[in-house]
């Protein structure tokens, strides 16, 4: 049997609901559950994770959500690792939802394959932040706040290095519950059981195996096969749509492209920011030129904060570099990040997250295009 969720086009199997209920209501409230959701691509990890969030919120009021899927993140743009604090249910699981994260790290690529070490470092830093601020710390106890449960969504790359990454994450996080969603192609699944345990170590996590959702009457998967590129573009478009007032009547990507092309950018002095290329080396003379018409992470340099060396800097949002004027020593940036946060930004992170082609094809404008009316920044 299937259980119809509040979403009009998503059906949650009874076994999925029973699993979510067991995590939310059969476990002790202190400490609350830390649930690691894993499985192959298109198995339904994101759908189950959001359903689990909806199940946990009524009991705990607030739930932490750690998104480690840089290719298909749930609440942010591609290329980001993030942690969110969720305090309300999502009635429709099919709707694209953009949320401001509690903390974010810009990894700068849609797969951990390019730099597994940096990827894991980012995941660990976000988990450590959650553990310190929301799970177990003197600070939390002194404030008399209850620890929050955590849901961890993971990427669908589960073979080769992807498998090794999943194992390392499980060993570091040590969740109370591990939910593995399995598809019919058995060779694409993770191993059964506590596959991450070494030697004679004992596993204290509750293991839950679920099958991917199927609609019995049609005998087909209810989980739509994702057009990854289209979904990534949709999230980037939704993010930069926030640059414009909600009152603007924009119904097509073409209209959005025109609106962004005429939108007043921030003016950023080159002397105020450093540039870091995350996955490549760029000649010193070409550093600023290479930013032209690219998406960058807007970050606070770790050396200006009290963070230890070796940690990726916190990212406050993304920006489009609309132009570079070397003679004036200025960058022109479009971003929905408020000025109060922009004032703290002193580091631009360039990765491989591309501007959707539909936002570059603007008739009458040269891209990258330079604006004459600008807003000062810093």
UniProtKB/TrEMBL annotation:
One record GO biological process: cleavage in ITS2 between 5.8S rRNA and LSU-rRNA of tricistronic rRNA transcript (SSU-rRNA, 5.8S rRNA, LSU-rRNA)
Pfam families for this protein: CLP1_P (PF16575), NOL9_C (PF25467)
Keywords: ATP-binding, Kinase, Nucleotide-binding, Nucleus, rRNA processing, Transferase
InterPro entries xref list: Clp1/Grc3, CLP1_P, NOL9_C, P-loop_NTPase
Native source organism of the sequence: Aristolochia fimbriata (White veined hardy Dutchman's pipe vine)
Protein name in the entry: Polynucleotide 5'-hydroxyl-kinase NOL9
Subcellular location: Nucleus, Nucleolus
Domain Clp1 P-loop: 39-241
GO molecular function: ATP binding; polynucleotide 5'-hydroxyl-kinase activity
Sequence ranges assigned to domain NOL9 C-terminal in this UniProt record: 262-356
The UniProt record lists the keyword NAD: no
Transmembrane portions of the chain: none
Signal peptide positions on this chain: none
CC per GO annotation: nucleolus
